[in-house]
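INFO worker-7 received task bundle
INFO bundle size: 2
INFO processing item 0
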Amino acid sequence: MSHTAHIPSHRKPRRSASKLALRAGVAGGVLSTIAVAGAASPAMADPVHETVEMPTLTAAPTAATTTAPTASAEATQQIAFEYDRQARQEAAAADAAKDAKTAKAEADRKAEAKKKADEAREKAAEQAEQERASRSSARTTLASTGSSEGSGSSGSSSTASSSNASGSAAAVIAFARAQVGDAYVMGSTGPNAWDCSGLMQAAFGSIGVDLPRVSQGQSTAGTQVGLDNLQPGDILYWGSAGSAYHVGVYVGGGNFVGAQNSSTGVVERPLSYDPPTGAVRVL
């Protein structure tokens, strides 16, 4: 029998691997081993103590704890999105209302302008109709009075030639007077706007007399006559013969008709209003 057969062992019982794993949890395992130091001697060995450090158990995060913050963030984002969408809708509605108000104001302005334009056109048409009626009446009156006036102012011409000139002169004068009130527009030849030579060309053209287009040519188109020997139908000119800058027609009674300027248009005025330089007789 061995001399150590009766010496009791002080080694602690070995713990099973399953118990250690249970205590360590999912993060553990066996983290230590038991160190045993024993001296084989006749005397009783000192007890050997072991220290086992156990791992700290940490609970694994659950699905609930992970999902809760995410759901809260998503809810916050959704609320922010809804606020932003609502703000955009309100801004769009305000812009649309502003645009509609502007469009309505513009439509009202155009409608008012159109109304005024229509009224102005109607008034102008009425005035034009009245003027046409007045001119028609004037033509009839002047045609009869012009003949007698022309026949009574033959001057130094023979009676036969005066009689022929008077009838033509009356027609020229009637045409010119019928245009009184029309506008003066440089280069215009009627029927509602004239320049000075355009009116003379049209008036004499109404009886078949073809005059040059411009005042320079008209101032030399006939026989030069003195201003103290005028008769109705004579062409008056301002400036020198051949270089005149304005023309009109003598209508008798010390008056003339001419397309004066853009301010007055076609007017009948006394010779003293704008004394002419000379005159030519084409009838």
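INFO item 0 finished
INFO processing item 1
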Amino acid sequence: MKFSSLSPVAATAAVALMLTACSGGTASSPSNTDGKLSIANVVAGPLGDQSMYDSAQRGLDKLKTDGHQTNTLQADANNPTQWKANLESVSVGKWSIVVTGSSQMTDIVTGSAPKFPNQHYIFYDAVVDAPNVASITYKQNEGSFLAGVLAAEATTDKSSFPLSGGSKTVGVIGGVDIPVINDFIAGFKSGVKAVDPSVKVLTSYVGSFSDSAKGYDQAKSMYDQGADVVFQVAGGSGVGALQAAKDANKYAIGVDSNQNAIQKGHVLASMLKEVGNSLVQAIDAAQKGDLAYGKTTSYGLKNNGVALTFDNNGGIVPQPVIDKIDQYKQQVIDGKITVPTAKG
């Protein structure tokens, strides 16, 4: 499926309080008279990716329910100039905190944050080293390790997974060849190897996070090569991979948000990157004056920043397999298994 481009959403009413300059370390954000914050969310594209941006928006929705003022600015999927314009339009001191994220925004935030030293930013899924930016990263390699365990189980256990051909072949599709995506892939391959080192892992990159047609084609190619499971880590492009799983009558694993019901009976699980939850925690810290700007907070299996969810998958993963995956999860949390990372 393809997503239509959306125009930026105009900024809504703003608070009157101006921000004070933030040096490194812990800094507080200004609030309204009731102690609530105003938060602008800048998306590097449109919502509707059924992935990370939608997860972030669920966090904003929760914050709005909690009484904070929120506004989300969307944009065209491949228009960095528009992303930058949106970011800077809400960086003039009328919003307590500006939220944005993804590696696609790294250069833009790196360039814009120093121009607006009084503006507080929360930047998720990558790091910007600036005294007014609180960065959030995720140990996607850990969550992807569990996805690899599941994929290996599915391709080696035909009795438990009836759509599997027992080919001992799985695949992983990345959106773009960048460190954060390669971190998913490194974790996935490690999980596969932990179960059965002889399982073959096919790898490809779409070259985009918004080309679902190409995501479909790459997944179809993997299924044609015998893959029983394809793990998609390609944002909107990966939605095409889930469609390919249905058409090939094989399995897929979703990413970032719970995608298990998108192609019911074919999506074994989804590797969640809990962006929304992390943003709620960060805003709560900011409200208390405890959010550490100029620093990075990392979320992994131990602090529920990533997870593998089987909810809404139609019960297609047997409980003994889920129990086995939980055992692997606990070993990672306990430090008995160290999952490799592609980020150094």
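INFO item 1 finished
INFO post-check item 1: The mean pLDDT is 90.
INFO post-check item 1: The chain has two domains: 25-138+275-299, 140-273+314-333.
INFO worker-7 idle
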